[in-house]
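Before relying on records like the one below, remember that each one covers exactly one chain. Contacts with other chains, cofactors or solvent are not represented anywhere in the record.
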Amino acid sequence: MRSSIAQINLRDALAIWRRNVIVHLRVWKLNLVAPVIEPVISVLGFGLGIGALVAAKVSGVSYLSFVGAGLLSITVLMRAMFEMTYASYFKMVYQSTYDAILATPVDVESLALGEIIWALTHALFDTIIIMTVLALFGAATFPWALLAPLPLLVGATFMAGLSLGITAHTRDIDAYNLVMALFFSTMYISGAFFPLEVLPKWIQITARILPLTESIELTRAFLTGRFLPRHLYAGIYLVISAVVACEWALRSLRKRMVA
């Protein structure tokens, strides 16, 4: 069976991306508020607030640096998820944007990739803002921090692909209540706010299966410079997960829009 990724027309996908950029530029001021305010409040609340109660280092770094990586990862992955859930659902169902695009020579696979690239663009934009905030608060000082967007973007690719696939199977917008509940539940066992080692063994195993966990740990490694041999395997697993999620998203959207 031919891969859906192989059927993508990159030129058409970039045209979809440009369309999203043009729309975004009309409301960019409103969209700028959340990624600026949220990380500042989160760093103040978690990093400085709770961090003041944590005297010892956490996994060899200050709690501010530890939780800063978690907050960065969660916020960026959440941005990719929201772009491919509620935003995509509105364009697919209520606004019929996808139907209008597919009435042109653009195929479903190119449309899906264009949407995923846009989600990554938005995620990268948030990454730059939040990393600037973390650097100002002293949570990202290691030179490798400049490469922290790499695992974040791979993780965001996984999240965008998974979310778009879910959207393609969603018939009622209220179903996203379950999606959000699952995301925010797994967020607390993914090592964002405390080390996995303090959790029961069976939860640690479950957490390791989640690409979310690997994205957070790799981001933290780049921000703090504390690399471990298992991070290589984590990176490979994250890339494979992202490819599989995108393939599923492309196939699912074709089934939804063409069937």
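The chain has one domain: 5-258.
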